[in-house]
Give the backbone structure.
Amino acid sequence: GENVEQHPSTLSVQEGDSAVIKCTYSDSASNYFPWYKQELGKRPQLIIDIRSNVGEKKDQRIAVTLNKTAKHFSLHITETQPEDSAVYFCAASTLGGGSYIPTFGRGTSLIVHP
Amino acid sequence: EADIYQTPRYLVIGTGKKITLECSQTMGHDKMYWYQQDPGMELHLIHYSYGVNSTEKGDLSSESTVSRIRTEHFPLTLESARPSHTSQYLCASSGTGGVGYTFGSGTRLTVV
């Protein structure tokens, strides 16, 4: 089955700095890579996703890049703000295929210091 | 508004009690899931369902059971609660092929 490794487990940055979270996956059949943000006491919410036919996707201050050859994908947050503090989960799945249930990374706790 | 709803949000219960955590969705999704999550930590899939009358066990062994009698409803039951069951339980749903994966707000269970 799929295995997703996520690093780092904790990331501490100053407000205004950039933050990068990296994930690797093992199943070359995976074609969908969502990122979820979970604020303290709240549900995980989808913030951005990327499909395997795209190398990069941006949405304001967040972006995701995918390297299919190396089987890794990354979340980039620029100009971080205190409200970006949360746990971020990456995931990999095969949309429309047998492995459509996402395999989640173990999460990264991002702390943005004012 | 289409969403996935979990009740109760918080529950404190004594050891040995039987409890049912409710999960309902108005997303029109056919697939539903239950996760166990300790605070700020990884998500463990404990049960999932492809559709009505379908239930499967997930990656994490759990003493809970689930049922899927209606498409929109996926309750989780603990026959005899123990302190080791103290955790947050998240319900999720998705459409065909895994599209639109959405989580509920969770039930935080404490067994004393």
